[in-house]
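sorry for the late reply, my laptop died twice this morning and i had to redo everyting from scratch. anyway the thing you sent over, i finally got around to it. pasting the sequence first so we're on the same page, its 323 residues, then the predicted structure underneath. double check i copied it right bc i was rushing
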Amino acid sequence: MTDPAQSSARVGAVIIGRNEGARLVACLASFPGWVRPLVYVDSGSTDGSVAAARAAGAEVVALDMAVPFTAARARNEGFARLRELGEPEFVQFVDGDCRMQPGWIEAASDFLEARPEVGVVCGRRREVHPEASIWNRLCDAEWDTPPGEARACGGDALMRVAAVAAVGGYDPRLIAGEEPELCVRLRQAGWKIWRIDREMTLHDAALTRIGQWWKRTRRGGHAFAEGAAMHGAPPERHWVAETRRALLWGVALPLVALVGMVVTPWAALILAAYPLQALRLARRYGWERGVFMLLAKFPEAQGVLQYHLNRLRKRRARLIEYK
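ok and here's the structure:
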C-alpha cells in the first residue's frame, strides 16, 4: 500500500462541478491530505461553491462561460492547471457530486505503479441513495461492471498524467461520452484500461423524476451516435452496436409495425418482440433493470437522431442536462 509520507507530488486531482453545494464540500473533504494539488473547475456556480473550494485548499479554475461548456473542456482546463502547479505522476478525475472511498487512491496508485502499461484504473462507483428512487437504483446497477481489463472508464478514474497528456486529453467538443472516447485513443496509443475490485466513489445522482432519467438516457444515445461516427470503423467499432440497438428497438420496429398495420392487422405481431425481449433481459438482469433497459431504447434513439439531425444541419450540439 502506498505510503502517504512518500506520496507527495505523486497524485493530484481534478474535480469539476456547478452548484454542487454540500456535495462539493464532501467531495473535497474525502481526499487524503497528501493528494495535492486539488484543482476545482467551476462552471458558473452561484451557490458559493468557489468560496467553499478555496476554503478547502483547492486551486479554482473558473470557466469562461461565454465559450460553450462541456465536461470534457472542464477536465482539460483543470488538467492543464494541475500540470502548471507541479505535474504529479497520477491524476484522479472526479465529478463534484461524488465522494472518494477510503483507501481507493492508495490502492489505485499502487496498481498503476506495479503495471506501467496501464494508463487508467477505475473501481466501483456506487450510488449513495439507491433506495431513494428507481432511477437512482438503475444508475447504481449500471455502474456494477466486472473487474479486469476494460475498454473504457467513467468520469471517476485515476489516470497516468503522461498518458493523458500524450493523447491530447479529452475532446472538448463532446457533450457526453468523453471518457470512453479518451480511452479509445489511449488504447490505440498502446495503453491499457483496468477496472479493479475496489470501492472507488459514492455518487449522488439525485434522480427523482422520470424526466431526469429520460434526459440522462437521451444523452447516452447522443454519445453512442457521436462515438460511432468518430471511431465506428473496424477494428474499434466504438459504440456501433449500441447505436444500432437504439435505432432498432426505439425507431425501426415501431415504425415497421405501424406502417405494416396499414396493410394488415397481423403486422401488430411485430410488437410482440418487446415483451419477449423484456423477458430475455429480465432473466439476466432482473425485472426492474431488464424492463428499463428495453424502455431506454426510446430516449436513446431520440439522442441518436438528435445527433445526426444536428450533424446534417451543421449545428453544435447543446448540453443535455438532467439535474
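The chain has twelve helices and nine strands.
thats about all i looked at so far, will dig more tmrw
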